Amino acid sequence: MVREVSESCxxxxxxxxxxxxxxxxxxxxxxxxxxxxxxxxxxxxxxxSERYTMDRPRFTDxxxxxxxxxxxxxxxxxxxxIDNLKTNHRGTFVLQDNRFRWLAHMxxxxxxxxSGNIQDPSAMAxxxxxxxxxxxxxxxxxxxxxALSNLGIECAVSADISNLPAFVNRTCTPPTLSFCYSCMTExxxxxxxxxxxxxxxxxxxxx
Amino acid sequence: MAPAAPKSGDVxxxxxxxxxxxxxxxxxxxxxRQLITDLEEVEEVNKQLDQMGYNIGVRLVxxxxxxxxxxxxxDFRETAxxxxxxxxxxxxxxxxxxTNWDAEGTTCSLILEDNPLVDFVELPDTCQGLHxxxxxxxxxxGALEMLRVALPEVFKQLRLIRAKxxxxxxxxxxxxxLRDMLRGDDVFELQVKLLKQVPEEYPYKDDE
Lengths: 207, 208
Hints:
By secondary structure, chain A is of the alpha+beta class. Chain A has six helices and five strands; from the N terminus they run E-H-H-H-E-E-H-E-E-H-H. Chain A is globular, with a radius of gyration of 17 Å. Chain B is α+β, with helices and mostly antiparallel strands. Chain B is built from six helices and seven strands; from the N terminus they run H-E-H-H-H-E-E-H-E-H-E-E-E. Chain B starts with 8 loop residues before the first helix and ends in a 14-residue tail after the last strand. Chain B: One of its GO terms (cellular component) is TRAPP complex.
């Protein structure tokens, strides 16, 4: 029988990491905070993938490893598989989760959506809320990067969200989370993590 | 309307969303490791873990009250029992026991024999003085501070206000580790001590 804890424990812990690093230690340095949070995720992903691949033979290629992440690994973590996997066959993969559990209880400040339209052209408000939720994504990105690293694949992982639920009681589609993963040589790995906006745009343009 | 009977910890734990404890254990371990790297001083790490736990406890207590149907006005003894049997069970999946009550009923020990936070964990010698599970002490402290109990008899002697009797106070506690399995003890023992408090003084007299 696998030992379990309540999901609130994990969610509280993750919220606290983000709070401590973003508002505490590195209050004015979001990039440093992001790196620390990602590093924590990396360690977790690394150890988890080791445990979940103990009885398996080594993966023969990148695609098999990614499929493992999408199916077995994601099932162990979130009790569901990745909903959609896309690739450009040149080293970039996009993993899409249409109901990402860790964001299910997060929403955007209703004042941002005063016009009732999520694509409100208020750039600053959008930026702030995107930044806040973006911080919560570094941990799962780190988990994926750590898991793949243990399987022998060096990569950079970035994430993007669409359709966050709102406080206002109305029907919304559940949050959709896309992970974009790109195979890179180690030399450029470090810079990729810091400029993930660049990474995502370049991945999109290469489709 | 009679309040709903309090539910047992097992029942609540079976009804909440649960995840693999490994994710929780490894995430906590990675956090502690990262904090040690960033803060370097073991005492600083202890303090930070306690603070994080406090913030978590303050939030978790809402879920605790909502799901356990525990009534708000109980005494410290009952509260400690409920935290141990229901609180720990519904979140961590393990029950604690309450022992070592002092004569005044303001200090007790929570004993944990099974702790998901420390599965597969061994402390290296470089971490002398680290309270690995310090987040738990923060959680207990934060949760208790949000709960209100009847003012214990022994504190009523300290009362200074003349106006209407204040019967309830929030529980400010001091929580310390007495025994730690990662240091070779046989159980985890958390001492919870209710701090002497004077009920709030009202700046104006009652108009009744």
